[in-house]
Structure formats: C-alpha cells, structure tokens
Amino acid sequence: MPSGIPQIPNFNIKVIFLVHFLFISISCMGSWSGNGFLFYNSLLIFLLLWSIFHSESQEPLQLAIVIDGFSVMLDIILLIMNFPTRDDILHYSAGNTFSAAIAIIHLLIRPVLTYLLVRNLEDRGGNTGTISNMFAANRTESYEDIDRPSPASQNTAQDGYTFASAQPI
Fold first, then answer.
1. 80, 123, 135, 152: least surrounded by Cβ within 10 Å?
2. Its pTM surpasses 0.85
C-alpha cells in the first residue's frame, strides 16, 4: 500500500462510497430495477457523501447504516419481483440480466460494507460496538441546562456575597 493512502481523511468511507456507487450505477443500467431501487440507493449515496464532508458528525453514518441494512431486504424483494426472465419478453435482454447479476453481487457484499460502516462509526464516536450504544446520544458538545441551578461557584466577593445566595427579584 502506498504511504500516502493512510493520510487521506475518511479513506475507508470514500472506498465504501466508491464501491456502492459503482455497483449501484451498473445495477441501474437495466430497465428491470425501477425507480424504487434508485430512490433508496440515492439516499444511501447522499448519506455517504454527507458523512465524508462532515467527518465529525455521527448522524450521517448512523443513517447510512440503517439505510444500508434495510436495503438488503429491499434488494431481495425487488429482485424476487422484477428479475428478468426469458418469459418476460419486454424486460429480457443481456443488459438487464447483467445489471440484475451485479445487483445480486452488490446484495452479497452489502453486509460487509455495512459492517465496515459500523467500524467507522465506532472510530468516529468511540462507541463500544453494540447496537444499543451505536445510536446512543454520545455528543461531545457541552450543554448547559438553564432551568437547573448551577453548583455554587468558589469565587466570592469581599462581603461573602455569591450568586448561589442571591435573592430572587
């Protein structure tokens, strides 16, 4: 592996994006797939691009993992319903069969790519790898609840007056 590859930011997500993009593009070349296949795969491509450009945020990766997981089931349903056969004169051609075969290969590698997305989410957010922790609100921003009183500060004025001992107006 060339020495410059590890320095590329978000390298793993970029490779996952390119693999998905290649397989989705070839799968959509046939007329068998319809608009549903293009819709949920376009959402996945958008979320992967979003996670590349916002590398500090976990939400795009979490949504991409969910969409990629549901895409396995949706691909199976779509292939069962629309796979081009010799009996279907309207949709049967070598191009349609080839694009459906590429969709099957993509279906087989989707779980591996989903697992790699989960690993990238763990690297990005420090989660432990369990499903319950993957979508936990593990935010790095600090949040100050203005409805709750803050602990008394240690800084006191000359006469011993603090904000904790102040009377409401």
1. 80
2. no
CA 168 to chain CA centroid, nearest Å: 48
Can you tell me whether residue 122 is helix, strand or coil? helix
Using one digit for the tens of pLDDT, what is the confidence trace for 100-131?
999 999 999 999 999 999 999 988 875 655 55
The whole-angstrom distance between residue 148's C-alpha and the CA centroid of its chain comes to 35
- Tally Cβ neighbours within 10 Å of residue 158: 5
Of 152, 75, 162, 161, nearest to 114 by C-alpha is 75
Q: How far apart are CA 16 and CA 1, in angstroms?
A: 17
Question: 156 is written with which tokens?
Answer: 């006191």
Question: Which candidate, 79, 72, 74, places its Cα nearest to that of 111?
Answer: 72
Residue 30 has a pLDDT of 84
Distances from the Cα of 111 to the Cαs of 20, 106, 119, 120, 134, in angstroms? 12, 9, 12, 14, 16
Percent of the chain exceeding pLDDT 90 equals 43
pLDDT value at residue 127: 60
Residues in Cβ contact with 47 at an 8 Å cutoff, skipping those fewer than 6 apart: 60, 61, 63, 64, 67
Q: Tell me, what amino acid is at 25? A: S
